[in-house]
């Protein structure tokens, strides 16, 4: 299927990086990890396109990585976690009148 520019082809060309593993000189390491069996250094990778990683603040990155690691790996399959946390709404406080 030559000539396709969207969909999966675009997805592969986006350049995915692991925001949980920053490089010393700046940027991030490529997505993925060497071995899942070692369970030594690091945890589950949180991968996003490089363009999205550049636009995220340090707090957003920290939050995304924390939620990914907290989700764990039940059943041997990775868990998808949204990159940005949903904002909680403040619940409207209902006051009840005392009955006399």
How would you summarize the topology of this molecule?
Layout: H1 8-13, E1 16-22, E2 28-30, E3 47-49, H2 50-55, H3 58-71
Could you name the ranges where pLDDT drops below 50 across 5 or more consecutive residues?
Answer: none
The percent of residues in helical segments reads 25-40%
Give, in spatial order, the strands making up the sheet with the most strands: 2-1-3
Using DSSP, what is the number of strands? 3
Characterization of this structure:
It is elongated, with a radius of gyration of 20 Å. It has a domain at 16-71. It starts with 7 loop residues before the first helix and ends in a 29-residue tail after the last helix. The chain has a 3-stranded antiparallel beta sheet. The protein contains 3 helices and 3 strands. By secondary structure, the chain is an alpha+beta fold.
Quick recap:
The chain is of the alpha+beta class. The chain has 3 helices and 3 strands; from the N terminus they run H-E-E-E-H-H.
